[in-house]
Structure formats: C-alpha cells, structure tokens
Amino acid sequence: MAQSLSRILIHTVYSSKDRCPFLRDPEFRGETLAYLAGCAKALVF
After folding, report:
1. Which of 1, 16, 20, 24 is most solvent-facing, going by the fewest CB within 10 Å?
2. pLDDT at position 45, please?
3. C-alpha dist (Å) from residue 21 to 28, 38, 41, 44
4. What are the residues whose beta carbons fall under 8 Å from the beta carbon of 4, sequence distance 6 or more?
5. Per-residue pLDDT for the chain (45 aa), expressed as one digit of tens each?
6. Which of these, 5, 6, 24, lies nearest to 16 by C-alpha position?
7. How far is CA 10 from CA 19, 28, 43, in A?
8. Residues 19-27: contacts with CB under 8 Å, at least 24 apart
9. Where are the alpha helices (DSSP H) in 1-45?
10. Cα(10)–Cα(8) distance, rounded to whole angstroms?
C-alpha cells in the first residue's frame, strides 16, 4: 500500500524596533502568538 507523508515546519524570526522586549507581557504575547498561529494555519500548500 502506497503512503504519502508530508510535514511542514515554519520557523519565524523577527525583532522589534530597538529590540524592545514587548513580548514579556503575557496578555500581549498570547494574542501575538495566536495571530501568528492563525496565519500559519491559513497557508495552503
């Protein structure tokens, strides 16, 4: 039986202006990561 497997990994790297540590705020961090996860899930390959 033939089997087709695929695995897509997405690695994002970004920096804030003047390397401001804005992701230390748990609420903002959660919202930001949820947004990025939604963007990644919306990609269709």
Report:
1. 1
2. 56
3. 11, 23, 26, 32
4. none
5. 677 887 777 787 878 888 888 888 899 999 988 998 888 888 765
6. 24
7. 22, 21, 11
8. none
9. 26-42
10. 7
Q: In the 8-state DSSP scheme, what is residue 23?
A: G
Q: What pLDDT score does 9 carry?
A: 78
The C-alpha atoms of residue 15 and residue 40 are separated, in whole angstroms, by 18
Question: pLDDT value at position 44?
Answer: 65
Query: Taken in order 30, 31, 36, 37, is the CA torsion positive or negative?
Result: positive
Q: How far apart (Å, rounded) are the C-alpha atoms in residues 23 and 45?
A: 30
